[in-house]
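Figure S4 source data
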Amino acid sequence: MPSFASSSEVRDSTDGTLLVLRARHVLVSGVPSETVRTVKGRLPDDLDVILQSDLVIALTGMVNRVNICSRAIQCSAIANHLLNYFHMNGEQLGVRPASKVYIDDSDGMAKLTLSPTRPLLKSRSDDTALRLSTIELLYAFRTEPCRRGSQPQGQERGGLHDADLATAADPFSPHAFLPLIAALDRAVERFVGLHLIRRYPLIFGPWRERYDAEVALTEKIARAVVNITARSPNAQFRKRSRNLMKALRLNCAAVSVASEEALRGVLRSVGESNEPELPGESPAPLNDDFAVLCHSMERLFKHGLKPIRYKVRMCSVEFCYLHTISNDFTPSC
C-alpha cells in the first residue's frame, strides 16, 4: 500500500509582508512506498491517524518565489521560533524536540525531529489505521522589495541580503524583527490548532491525554463485565448479555467495514489499482468480548466528548531572545 500526502495552508500578513505557511502531511498505510502520492481534500473521518515513531518536520523557505537554501533556514530565526514553540508547548501537544535543526544528508533539507511524550498508541483497527510519518513545512513570503531585482524566478540563494533582492527585512535572518515574530506566532498557532490537533486528535493535544486515561478505565470495566457475565449463575442474565454483545459485535463490524471502505476510497483516489489486503468480514478482535467492549466504549468516548481547548504558549520575544536554550538544541551554523 502506498504512502500518500494531504496538504494544508494558513496565511498571515504584517507590515506589507504576506506569510503563507503550507504543510504537506505524509501518511503511510501498511508498508511505505518510494512514491508519495497526493490526496485531494481532507481524509475521511472514519480513518484513525496514529504516531508509531518519531515525527520528522522538514523545513523549506521561499521569498518572492525565490528558494532559500537549507543552511540559511537552519540558522534562521524562523527555525528557532518553531523549535522554541515545541519546547514551550510540548507537554500539551504530546511531542517534544528530540534534535536540533539539522541538515539531512540524504536530501539536503533542514529538519527537526519530534518525539512523543506519551505512550505510542496501538490502534484496535491496525489494518486501516494510518501512520503520520513526516510533515513538510514551507514558509513562503511575499515582500515589498526596496528596488527591483534581476535574479530569475526559482533560483536558490542563501539569504535576502543580496543587493539585487534587498528588502526591508530578511524573513530568514538569524535575528527576526518584532512584527515577523508576531506573524509567526499567529500562523503557527493556527496551523497547530487547525491542522494538527483537529486532524490528529489521537496524536496531538490535551484530548489525547484524557483519552489515555479513559482507555485505562475502559479496559478495567470491560474485563470486569466479561468476568461477571461468565461467573453469573443467572441464565437469563447471561442470555441477555450475549444478545447485547452480539449487537455490539455487529456494530463494531459495521464500523470496521466503513473504515475499510474509506481506506479503499483514499487508495483509489491516489491511483492505487490493486486492492489492499484488508481484514475479512469477521476480524479476530471482533470475536472477543473484551475487545468488543473496549472498542465500543472508546468509540463512545471519541464521539461523545468535546475536545479540550488547547491553550497555546506563544514564543514571545523575551523567550526567543532573552532566554537561552540548551546547547543540545541550538542550531550549529
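Figure S5 source data
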Amino acid sequence: MGSIYRRLEICSVNLQGPSSLRTTHLTHLQFLHPLASRFFAKPFSSAIDDELAVKSFLVSFLIDSCGLSSTRAVCVSDIYGERLGFSPARKPDGILELLRDHGFRTPHIARMISNWPLLLRVRCPQRTLLPKLEFFYSIGFTKEDLPALISKNPKYWLRSLEGHTRPVYSTLKAVLKSDDQVVHILKRARWGLPWMGEKNLGSNLVLLRGIGAPQSTIALMLKNFPSDMLAKHEKFCETVNEVKSLGFNVSKSVFALAVHVMTCGKAAKERCSKIYKEWGWSDDDILLAFQKAPLCLLVSEGKLKRTLDFLVNRMGCDAGAIAKYPVILLYNLERRIIPRCLVVQLLLEKGLIKKEWSLGSIMTTLESYFLKRYVNRYPDIAPQLLSVYTDSILRPSKTEKLS
C-alpha cells in the first residue's frame, strides 16, 4: 500500500498543471492500478484518511478481538488486509462467537488467526465450520481437547468434511477398530488429519498387508508412529524392504520399531553407532543389538554414555555382552538400573549370588519377579535390601555412589 501512496503523491503534484494534462494523468493512473479510482473519487487526502482508518480498525480488531500481538496484527493487516475485506460495518463476529461457544479461548483464536488469517473470511460459519466441529465431537473429541488440536493446525478447517475428513477417519477406524484409538492418533500425529492423504496412507496399508504384516503390527505402527505411515509411498516401500533385508520378521512387533528407526534421519543412528564402537562394539554387535531392540539406535547421546559408563566401569560388565541385552539401554538409569545394581552389590558382598551374575535376568525381569527372586528370597536381610532398593528409586539424586 505504501508504494501506491508514493505514486499517488507524485501524480498529485503533476495534477496541479492544466486541466487536459490532469485528465491524462488521471486516466493513466486509473489504468495502472484499480485502487486509483477509489482515491480520486473523492479528495485525495480524504481517500488516504479512509484507507488508514480501515487499516487502523483491522489492526485494532485483530488485537482486541483475536488476541494477536500488535506486531503480528500489523503484519497480517499489511499482507491480508484487502483480502479480508471487512470494516466496522462488516465484522466477522459470527466466526469468533461460534469458536468461543465451542471452547476456543483467546490463545487458541490468536494462534489460528496468526497462522491462517483467511479464516476470518469464512461465510456462514454455522454451515461451514459447525458441521466439522460436530463430526469431531461424534468420534470422541471434547470441548476441552478439540481447540488445542485445531488451533495447532488450522488447516483442519480447509479440508472437505465429506471429501477428505470422513474417508481418512474411516481408513483409520478400519485398522484401529475404535474411535478412542483414532482420537489418540490424531492427537499424536505431527501434522494431523489435514495432511493424512488417503493415497499414501492407503497405499502403505496395502503394502503392509501384502507382505503379511498382521493387524496388530499395523495398528502398532499407526498408534505409535502415525507420521511414518504418512510417508510418500515410494519412500515407505524402500524403508520396509530395507528392514526386511536386515532379517526382521514382519509378523513381530519389533518390525514396526525397526521401520520407525529407519524412517528417522541418519544423524541419530550414526551418533549411536559411533558411541557403541568407542565402547568396543563391532558392526555385528550393533546389528545384533538393532535386531533385538531397534530403538537402541535412537537413545540420546548423554543417556547412552552415562548408562554404558555405569554398567562397564562401575559394575564391571563386559561392553560386548550388553549388545546381547540392548533393551537395557532404553531403561531409566536412575530409577531402574542403579536401584537393581545396588541390590546386586549388596548380595555380592553377602556372598548370596555368584560373581558371574546375569545382567539380562537382573535388568529385564518384571518388577514383581525381581523382588521375589532377589529381595524377598533372603528374609534375614530382606528389610535392608528393600530399603536400599526403594530409597534409591524414591530419591535417585541421593543414591549412594557405587564403588
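The CA atoms of residues 48 and 115 lie 29 Å apart. The two ends are 73 Å apart (CA to CA).
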